[in-house]
Amino acid sequence: MISEEENVNASEPASYAPSWYTATMVPTAMRGPLTFDLDVDVCVIGAGLAGLTTARELARRGWSVAVLEAGRIAGNASGRNHGFVLPGFAESMERVVSRVGMEHAKALWDLSEMGLRYVRTTIAEARMPGVAPIAGWLKVSKVDNGDEVLADVQLYGQELGAEIEGWPTERVREVLKTDHYFHALHLPRAFHIHPLNYALGLAEVAEAAGARIFEHTTALSIDAEGVRKRITTPSARVRAGHIVLAGNVHLAALMPRVVGTLMPIWSYVITTAPLGPRLAEAVTYRGAVTDTDLANSHYRIVGNDRLLWSGHSTTWEANPTRMVSRLQAEIAAIYPQLGEVEVEHVWSGVLGNPLHRMPQIGELSPGVWLASGFGGHGLNTTAMAGNIVAQAIAEGEDTWRLFAPFELVWAGGKLGRAAMQVYYWWFDARERFAARQARQREEEYRRGTELAALRSGEEQAHVEARLGAVVPRSELPEEPALAELPADPVAAGEIASPSIDHVEPGDEVIERPNDDARRFARTDSPGASLEDNGQQDWPADGAGPKRRV
pTM above 0.90? Predict the structure, then answer.
């Protein structure tokens, strides 16, 4: 059954969407809304992971910071995602290199590595409860593309300096007991976490550094003219020297032109009931797993014996419960040994994806900064963006200009969303077809190899038939010669033959072919008849009755 639990803190309003994350979140106090006018150095709009990181880093540098959040801390994508923390971006580094060159691409890769280290270090230094980082990320292939995997290992490992491994099919199937996967890329320094508990811990360390966080405080409008910017909320106004827009598609009412550059993608996630030993028998790898370049399928083990599984993205919001059966079918197809799995939690989260699949980081106008577009990257980019923006504001760093080639591009509105949905369907269908073909080719190769081994060992034809092999006629066993047939168990001498006294010339005699005895009848005599129920036997050559003279 699907859990109806909404919040682990029963004394508070049910303000978080129900999920496995909210069911296992650490207790946290609700921050009150802003009810008085405030003057600060920096106003951060959005208390997601990027906004909280920016606020913390600016507060650590001595700047006064206010964070405005329309709902709860990490109540949207930051607290509902897969929890993957890995280097790199949603866009492949091969395409990044082709667009900006190797040196520029390497600098971007190093920034993504910095974001990963920041998350790991922050969790360790703050000793955040309930975050539970677990190392490793496997990007597995559903087709037999060993050459492509080797090329990626060379690009990421030798050119970009990443710590990466290429796993052959045999090693992948040692830890993921399914024939759906072939080769894989393994990032041993990547890890996965409880993202909501990480966000709550990040809010606490940001407040400890001096930042002020106001929940249920919607930014209604922005006046970005002049040195001091003004932000209007339902109950108060904020004046600040800098504004940081650290939000997603939820900023549409505030900055529609900026949000128009994001493609909204809803991802659907389930968590199974405890699966016990059968999960350990099917999946022995404890890191995160991804088997596609888009939304299907991302999964990991949580709570020791549960599967957290996501997939089936849409560009319009759908009821998450309608996706349960599809995600269950996906699990059953890849791991049939798990049987029918029970689902206890289901939820969705909306991501903002730029068309170029790179983060949107930089200065929109003097004093107005953007940190957005993190869909499909993993949590490292939120930490990376927060640090880059904080350094730009406090220290005048221009690292953010590395993202200038990935400008704001209009995503096409409703027509663009429809086109993207069609693309997702087409990509998913093509990927499934290619995966099915790869498994069929592997099965044919296995059968051919086993058949060749059997033939070389002179196995019996019936064993080959068991494999579904077509045995050439020349290789079938020869039929035994007549001389080799066993003797008839009834001896011919045991059957008495009637005596024939005399046969007149011209009498027609019918001979019944019988190895044991022959019976004759004179057909020209009155009362003559054939024995054996009156049946008449004919010779095999069809030449008519035999005559004996």
Answer: no
